[in-house]
Amino acid sequence: MQNKRNVHLRLILVSGKTQDFTFSPNDSATDIAKHVFENWPAGWEEERVSSPSILRLIFQGRFLHGNVTLGALKLPPGRTTVMHLVARETLPEPNSHGQRNREKTTESNCCLLL
């Protein structure tokens, strides 16, 4: 039996590719990531990830924690809600920040008044 209050999501990848999905209000961000991973759209092959655990949803500029349900977001019924789907790998090693070149420039931003 299909719930009439299903939530329609349009997921957008960083590449700009989109795909529409339908979920239950009881589905969590983790459930959505798993479903998308297991039903990866044919047009998204270049963006395929190795595991659903690295897929993250972004809604209104915020990452959704895995246990947040769609119902808790109080999404408007009957409308398609847009969310971003990103692959968030493990954090870089602590010393990788030192590889960035942060040398100060000798350029000056002041002006001389005569």
Automatic annotation (TrEMBL):
Domain (Ubiquitin-like) ranges: 7-85
Keyword annotations from UniProtKB, A to Z: Cell membrane, Lipoprotein, Membrane, Methylation, Palmitate, Prenylation
Membrane topology per record: Lipid-anchor
Transmembrane segments: none
Record-linked Pfam families: Rad60-SLD_2
Subcellular location: Cell membrane
Calcium listed as a keyword: no
Region of interest (Disordered), residue spans: 90-109
Keyword Phosphoprotein included in the entry's annotation: no
Superkingdom of origin: Eukaryota
GO cellular component terms, A-Z: plasma membrane
Name under which the protein is recorded: Ubiquitin-like protein
Organism: Lates calcarifer (Barramundi)
